[in-house]
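Batch manifest, entry 17 of 40.
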Amino acid sequence: MQTAERTLQLRAMPTMKCPACGAVLDEPAEVCPKCRFTLHRLDPKFGTLPLRNRYLTDRAQALSLEEVARLRELLQRFENRFPQSLFSVFVTDLPPDTNVREYAFWLANRAHFSSVESEAADNLDLLLVIDPAHHAAALTIGYGLEQFVTEENLRDALAAAENALRRNQLERAIRICVDHMTRDLCKASRTAERAHKFGDQLSVEQW
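Output type: structure tokens
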């Protein structure tokens, strides 16, 4: 039986991991100490930043207008629940042999999905990139979420969406990922609150 990663090229990608070689970084770095990868190397590779919308961008036109409306409502509810975070979804057909993990890393760092520009520890945003043409997906988070979300959390969210992605049921796949991250962040916020680390960094609004 094939794993989710082999079947769908799923990549759980915390931002403290080099998107090129997978080396774990102790802290944010301009250059990967192992493979010498830099974000600047991706600029000529991926070119001009694509146009994007708040919450959901469907450049592959893989979703119906009704699905787009429902998903934007879902992502808005996520933001209402976690006011400091923005969960964005970007659906696009990438060229063959494109590393979706690298593309998600580049897009998350170069594009400004949020109206508030947050950097380093203040970045609590999430980005899900889906390439339906090649059944590939990557889920990345801002630096500020790394103390709340593990690589295992990201991997589990993508693995849970495997069947839906394989069948091109994109709305269902996106909902599964959002629901997983909602549960993980609710659990993390409760743990942080009990440990008196909650503060203003990650809060949950009841709805």
